Amino acid sequence: MLVHRKKRPRYQIQVPLTSLIDIVFLLLIYFLLTTNFMVDEGIKIKLPQAKASALQTEQEITIYVNREGRAFLENQEIPLGNLFERLKKMIGGHEDKLVVIKADRSVILNKAVRVMDVAKAAGAGKLCLATEKEF
Known about the structure:
3 helices, 7 strands, alpha/beta, single chain, five-stranded mixed beta sheet, Nucleotidyltransferase, domain 5, two-stranded parallel sheet
């Protein structure tokens, strides 16, 4: 008599994925929280490019000059006559205060230089013309 033995199912090896999923989610949360989300708010301008750009880390006063030559301080358009008075108040007695001019790359040079003159006359000890790094 022929007896057929029943085939036993093999044991399947299962990797516990719960702990792996937990670690992946913890890493995801870590990278989301530690990523520096820098958003430059302000006037939409295209900065000129330079190969030797350096990051500024000091507290600064930023003046934007758009392509029409209009100046913006704290995201508000300001005439050059009023810019002098506002900068004088913002600089106060700090002669080492950094004033950054972010001028559009297509602005007429004379208009950007006039804004720099006003900032220097208001008492800015350091002037900087912002550029973006050329890739």
